[in-house]
Amino acid sequence: MKPRAPMFALLFSLLACEATAQPVAGDARDARRGERKVAVAAIEWSTLSTSQQQFLDSLAKQWSTLMPIQQSRFARLAVTAPSWTDERRTRVRTRIEQWAAMTPAQREQTREHFEQFQELSDDERKRVREAYRRFRDLPPEQRRELRERYRALKPPQD
Q: What region, left, alpha or beta, does residue 121 occupy, with left being phi > 0 and alpha being psi -120 to 50 degrees?
């Protein structure tokens, strides 16, 4: 039986930062997975269509600091957005806004947590998702208390 501590640590770290969106960066993570890199040219903000700019407006100020692969992925995302349901568009925009507001350290931590989540078995991922749904449905005060209790825990000793 696998130890549960890593899974719960992953769950609580996701809850603590409330960043559950898949990061769109393609960098050292791709190399670690053995994926071949394809050169992608930087995309100037001014070359995006009006609808792409509107969808990605929360990234406008930092667009030039994004890696070209990130720009490409965000631009492709914005092209397909008009065909989505309003609910999906709102959810993705909210996640983009959250991503844009993160510090580089928070983004890296989110990438690492996403990779850890992807390495879980299907059953473990299902349990983490269900635990997150239960957490999300709690009143805000209870969520805050749980976050505080988690932050007060001592890290496991290896």
A: beta
